[in-house]
């Protein structure tokens, strides 16, 4: 259509008529005079709208799905965070239960030996002094600790205190090559000196070259003068190998320590020695030997002659 004066007037007239019809339709409500026309238009254009709606709905659904997916993702993330928090709490509870068990075991050991102990926790491995097998504990001079005090846990001998600060102390572990402790055999009272060998069993030099030792024999600390650095009776370990004597003045055996030096946590520093030597009282009870299972022997007895034959062949 060409842009003329007549076309512009026609356009203005059509717009005016459209506004008039809208006003009449709104005021008429359900009785609107154009309701029939509107229904006719719906009948004609309804299928087209339906088709367009069908084509557009998947996009709308996809958008809704993305929004829902986002909401679900947020919820999943929230649940994952809650789950992680619960696991952390559970792990913390397990750790606390482990500490309680260690503390309980250590108190039983201290009670059996009548040792006065100061409880502490391992907070670091190694030390500035250059020792290869040391740990740092969270107790020091302010807690009554001094140099050359025995350190133990629920399993046995851990080491001795070498350096003391106000709130921390360094412990030289019993498996350090520079560590030496006097020992006494449980069964024979044979004396010796145990030295650390890192992650290998302790090397024990017995003073009696003819001492009769067998695998499984157990050792405890012999004790030092004035109970420093070692108090008596602390479990050390059990014999795992015995070298032939060979006529030497001393005899070498190898002892597996009771303490796991790579998993230390709760320890006790002996701040008061026992009044009397506990000797073997701190060692755990030996496991009972299993009783042999009784065997039943069944002897087959030959059957007699068949009935009615009186032992005579027919």
- N-to-C SSE series? HHEEEEEEEEEEEE
Strand order of the largest sheet: 1-2-5-4-3-12
Low-confidence parts: 41-69
Helix content: 25-40%
Mean pLDDT: 78
Structural class: alpha+beta
Terminal Cα separation, in Å? Answer: 139 Å
Give an overview of the whole structure.
With 314 residues, the protein is an alpha+beta fold. The protein is built from 2 helices and 12 strands. The chain has helices spanning 5-28, 35-113; strands at residues 116-125, 134-137, 150-152, 157-164, 169-173, 180-185, 191-197, 200-206, 218-221, 235-242, 251-257, 266-272. The strands form 2 sheets. Strands 1-2-5-4-3-12 form a 6-stranded antiparallel beta barrel. Strands 6-7-8-11-10-9 form a 6-stranded antiparallel β-barrel. The radius of gyration is 45 Å and the shape is elongated. Mean pLDDT is 78; it is low at 41-69.
Secondary structure: elements and pairs:
Blueprint: H1 5-28, H2 35-113, E1 116-125, E2 134-137, E3 150-152, E4 157-164, E5 169-173, E6 180-185, E7 191-197, E8 200-206, E9 218-221, E10 235-242, E11 251-257, E12 266-272
Antiparallel strand pairs: 1-2, 1-12, 2-5, 3-4, 3-12, 4-5, 6-7, 6-9, 7-8, 8-11, 9-10, 10-11
List keywords for this structure.
314 residues; alpha+beta; 6-stranded antiparallel β-barrel; 6-stranded antiparallel barrel; 12 strands; 24% strand
Structure summarized in a few sentences:
The chain has 314 residues and is of the alpha+beta class. The protein has helices spanning 5-28, 35-113, and strands at 116-125, 134-137, 150-152, 157-164, 169-173, 180-185, 191-197, 200-206, 218-221, 235-242, 251-257, 266-272. It contains two helices and twelve strands, in the order ααββββββββββββ.
